[in-house]
Design a protein that fits this description.
The complex is a heterodimer of chains A (about 110) and B (about 250).
Chain A lengths: L1 H20 L4 E9 L6 H12 L8 E7 L1 E4 L6 E4 L15 E4 L3 E8 L1
Parallel strand pairs in A: 1-2
Antiparallel strand pairs in A: 1-6, 3-4, 3-5
Helix pairs in contact in A: 1-2
Chain B lengths: L29 H5 L3 E8 L2 H16 L3 E7 L5 H12 L5 E7 L4 H7 L5 E5 L8 H11 L6 E5 L16 E7 L6 H4 L1 H6 L2 E5 L11 H11 L4 E4 L9 H9 L1
Parallel strand pairs in B: 2-5, 2-6, 3-4, 3-5, 6-7, 7-8
Helix pairs in contact in B: 2-5
The chains are: A alpha+beta (about 110), B alpha/beta (about 250).
Amino acid sequence: MHEISLLESVLETLETQAKQQGFQQVKQVVLEIGALSCVEADALRFGFEVVMKNSLAEHAELVIIKIAGQGICPKCQQQVLLETLHDPCHHCGSFGVTVLQGQSMRIKELIVI
Amino acid sequence: MCGICGCGSSKLSPLKPHHHHHDDKHSHSHAQETHGERLVRVEQDILAKNDGYAEQNRQYFQQHGIFALNFVSSPGAGKTTLLVATINALKNTRPIFVIEGDQQTDLDADRIRETGVAALQINTGKACHLDAHDIGHAVQSLKVPDNSLLAIENVGNLVCPSSFDLGEAHKVVVLSVTEGDDKPLKYPDMFHAADLMIINKIDLLPYTNFDVDRCIEFAKRINPAIEVLQLSATQEHTMGAWLEWLNQH
């Protein structure tokens, strides 16, 4: 359950931002989660309520924007959509597609009071 | 507060100004802002804090000639046995230090200390991985001297440790032949993050249906650049290629 550790990092960021930006309460947290990152959106949703309890983000809404996995095929040089890290290139069938996008996990923005 | 990393103080980058662009896929109404709600753009990696500590560790290792390896595997793949055998082979040739990560107990650090090498045990409690902040403190606490080999044995877990950079030179994933040869496909993140895969317990191959070629093919599907070594940490004569790899790095 490293989702809990990740959410604790999110909470630390919220607390830091609250000091820097002068807000007391977070109403909504928007995360961008890559399709190839090793977190499950459902596990994040499950853990979010637990980790944010008794914090400035208690009862905040969690919005998860999924970022598609994209890569480039080392053989045919075409762009490839990836659902997993071991998908073959759907143009030529080669494995070992270089990942360009979809592994990141970002805090995009917040709605605060 | 800690003088090494400033525990408790934030390393987070300052926020970008709020430009009021509303070009994102999700929407929120301006009316909300009239009720005291506002949008704060953060645009920050969730792992930014860990990655910041990892970068500090990496710079420290580079400045001090410390060669740090992060050993990852499922529980029972033989990481500690591999480390003990490696230490016994190399301890008279270079300084070696070990950081052991487990949820509970000092048992692994005790096994390492029996070789005469200093080891620090980190108990992660409920956490399923070591993080870069743990490692920064452990290195200071162990007083790792310049030009050492630093072996970090992560918590036995093929999932979570793949996300947490510790500042190591390489992740080394250990996979034993008593596990399935399809582990790379089942846990692709770890094999994507690792630079070297050690297939361990090869002396047991006759008693398993583990297909070495198939395992390597699966690992290379995910990570074409991954290097592969085969050995049995309990059989000294199989350790040569691994010790040579260490000497060359």
